[in-house]
Write a structure and sequence with these properties.
Strand content: 15-25%
Shape: globular
Organism: Enterococcus dongliensis
Helix content: 25-40%
Distance between the termini: 39 Å
Pfam families: ThsB_TIR (PF08937)
Order of helices and strands: EHEHEHEEHEH
InterPro entries: ThsB__TIR-like_domain, ThsB_TIR-like_sf
Strand order of the largest sheet: 2-1-3-4-5-6
Number of helices: 5
Radius of gyration: 15 Å
Protein name: TIR domain-containing protein
CATH class: Alpha Beta
Oligomer: single chain
CATH topology: Rossmann fold
């Protein structure tokens, strides 16, 4: 089994890639310690005739991941070909799930894909400080909640945002 030390990021590659690119820029400029597997940086075209080879590559990438980040934009909940599949695979692999609301909401809202209903996950707004906090803290919380049989959507209290200065 591969050492799981990566962050797997899923998102709408057509509409929300700028947010993913911004996250990569944070990594370079802030020297943060999270790494990304870009689910959209594949050598093959994304068309229906190549769906299985793409999913095979995504499975391999997820096998090396310790956390799953979902960027939730306006159309994410309607993406069924890859994003829904990625979410379901992350759930199956019991990866800690961090849902990042691109609309700035601090908790789950109507843009969340249905496949996450009642699944253990944390919801945060898009931002470098809260993202780093979640990447450093949610995997431990997830493991504890999972051990206790807890499920559902979680969000951080306002005091966490206050401590982070956001």
């Amino acid at each position: 089994m591969a050492y799981r030390n990566k962050t797997y990021v899923a998102f709408d590659g057509d509409k929300d890639i700028r947010y993913y690119r911004l996250m990569k820029a944070w990594k370079q400029s802030d020297k943060t310690d999270f790494n990304f597997y870009d689910a959209h940086d594949l050598n093959t075209a994304r068309d229906s005739s190549q769906e299985e080879p793409i999913k095979r590559q995504l499975r391999e990438r997820m096998a090396n991941s310790k956390v799953f980040v979902l960027l939730i934009g306006e159309s994410t909940k309607n993406l069924t070909k890859f994003v829904k599949w990625e979410i379901e695979l992350a759930i199956k692999k019991e990866l800690p799930i961090i849902c990042v609301n691109l609309n700035g909401k601090k908790s789950k809202d109507t843009l969340c894909p249905k496949s996450l209903d009642d699944k253990l996950s944390i919801f945060i707004p898009f931002g470098s400080k809260i993202m780093q906090y979640a990447l450093e803290n949610w995997p431990t919380s997830d493991a504890s909640y999972r051990k206790d049989g807890k499920t559902g959507a979680y969000h951080y209290k306002q005091s966490v945002y206050d401590e982070l200065g956001i």
